[in-house]
Amino acid sequence: MVEIFRESDGNIALLKTKIIAIIGYGNQGRAQALNLRDSGLDIIIGNIDDDYKKLAIKDGFPVYEIKEAIIKSDISFLLIPDEVIRSVFREEIQNNLKPNSSLVFASGYTIGFKLISPPQNINIILIAPRMIGVGVRENFLNGQGFFSFVAIEQDYTGNAREILLALAKGIGTLKKGAILLSFKQEAELDLFNEQGFGPAFGRVLLSSIYTLIDAGYPPEAVLIEMYMSNEMAYTYKKMADIGLIKQVDFHSQTSQYGAISRGIRFRKLPLKNKMEQILKEIQDGDFTKEWENKITKLKFKLIKYFATKQKINSIEREVRKNLQLKLYDIYEEEPPTKEEMVKLQSISEELNLFRQYYE
Ligand code: NAI
Predict the structure, then answer these.
(1) pTM attached to this predicted model
(2) Which is it for strands 42-46 and 147-154: parallel, antiparallel or unpaired?
(3) Fewest C-beta atoms under 10 Å: which of 87, 155, 217, 326?
(4) Best mutation site among 22, 23, 25, 28 for ligand 1, i.e. most ligand atoms within 8 A of its Cβ?
């Protein structure tokens, strides 16, 4: 049985004498720092010299260099982008952690896939909100809370669980519920959502859009029908609020009959096999190995360029202009340079597949 922690499981008093450093004052950092401070805890911020630092000072926090904040604290939250955690950890954090202190992550990626190896004499804790930073703050203030996945990788002090629960309560997640997983499971679920569900959903959306546009419907109407109206966002919210199937009641009888009767025609899509394959690559660490490979960063640049050249981008740009909506510069992605293209020669066949797919 999965363990789910709730409000009564956390005792914030346990942390009253502790200094908590929030490293990084971005999406999660700001929200979690404000929530923990409002929960009565002693919060300092560790940040590089940038606009986030200015915001932390404006919000009234004592702000230090990352290294200094780590040295001063009993508990530190590492809330900087996953891409920079490794180098910042190596250079600023690793050698400055106090024995018996706790290091808290908001994503299982770096620990789950063993991309960093912290010292043995600390606790390693995960509190990963299933919520963007703004929502972490809003749902703390309105008292509703938000779901999180939590984990303990290392329990050096013997009371890592109590520390985790007190912090989770202070952040506001226990109001809704925190589910105990491992770091690796949290990372795998996150990656699967991005790599399995996301692209499959995107494909279905695009197929629907192109079917309608090819059939002669005005692109403006098609994009509004398919996503720009926000109607789907409401449907998604209703799925969460009352249930995946129950929300069907909000749609007309005609809509319900049409969806259920036509749904059976999609039963033979090879989705499950592909999903399982994607999940296995994540679980076996093949994805992480691929992403950590140097050439992948270049490959990423090129396939992102292909992706921004998709037909939907020019359609959408035109539609947004006609609907007098703001235009964004995603359409102007830079192509790789000649030298970069030479480096990509070794994977040219694979790249051709991407080019064809996105054409
Ligand atoms: P963010 O992109 O908002 O981080 C900005 C912060 O990182 C700033 O304080 C900035 O000064 C610092 N930073 C950026 N580059 C740096 C560098 N090279 N060296 C030192 N500091 C640097 O990060 P975000 O989105 O809040 O993510 C933080 C953690 O939370 C990540 O592990 C992420 O996976 C996790 N997470 C994020 C969610 C979200 O809503 N964005 C949701 C759940 C978890």
Answers:
(1) 0.92
(2) unpaired
(3) 326
(4) 28
